Amino acid sequence: MASTKQKALPETYTVEVFRFAPGEKKPRYDRFEVPVQHPGMTVLEALLYIKENLDPTLAVRYSCRMAVCGSCGMYVNGKGVLACHTRLAEFPSGKIRVSPMPNYPVVKDLMTDMSEFFTHHREVKPYIINPEMRAEIERPTREFLQTPEEVEEYLQFSYCIKCGLCVSACPTVASDPDFLGPQALMTVTRYNRDTRDGGWTYRLEVVDRPHGVWNCHFAGACTEVCPKGVDPALAIQFLKREAVVHGLGLDRLPFWPKRKQAPLAPPPKPARRKGIPAPPPRTVPES
Ligand code: SF4
Ligand code: FES
Fold this sequence. Notes:
Elements: E1 12-19, E2 28-35, H1 43-54, E3 73-76, E4 79-82, E5 95-99, E6 106-108, E7 111-112, H2 115-123, H3 134-138, H4 148-155, H5 165-169, H6 171-175, H7 182-192, H8 200-207, H9 221-225, H10 232-247
Parallel strand pairs: 1-5
Antiparallel strand pairs: 1-2, 3-4, 3-5, 6-7
Bound molecules: iron/sulfur cluster (SF4) and FE2/S2 (inorganic) cluster.
Iron/sulfur cluster binds next to helix 5 and helix 7.
């Protein structure tokens, strides 16, 4: 009968950490011995143990510690991960090597410079643009209505936490630093498939250019590394199809299905619900 007994974890992990500071000629790896403090101890906790007990100069970026803020992307034993969402137990050998994300300049140790990443993200206008409904978007009076199927069209792409791991894994970014990259391109699909949005022609112009969507070779490394289950490679293929259709003018032909626009919910009924008291009078005049 197969034993159900789990293999005991090492009591101490050997953690090799990439070190580099501005002004230094060469990076190096420093080795630390980290005692395992509980069975679920994460790579981030090991790094914080080092920072608090062994070497306070270690630079590591983190915030939420729960795979939400996207700050702690790094490579552990050559694999792109969120350090706060990766347990030491996943490496039963008791030895890990932690490095900063490739394809980004290193600021210090494990901290990378994300400026270019966010420049590309901003370039595609990652928010709802709707010139026809501008007033409603700026001062909402009602809700835009979407069916569950319409939400499903973009939902998985909205789970992105901007950790940048997809960009670090992308072979095209490695050879062309001006490439918009999987995260920005995926974001275009996220908004272009949203029926509340009307900014898709602007975004298609941004991506249908040198270093844009056509530079993606569909390696799929972005999808494989994404810790949130987003599929940037799929999003980019949707985008290529949209760019071809728009570029050839097919979407302007009379028989081509028109883009849907989310309707506004009916105006709210002024009557108050029974038993709910009226709010107190305003103390600040409405601007
Ligand atoms: S798509 Fe995934 S890997 Fe890329 S930034 Fe978003 S969450 Fe991170
Ligand atoms: S610390 Fe926020 S994602 Fe890891």
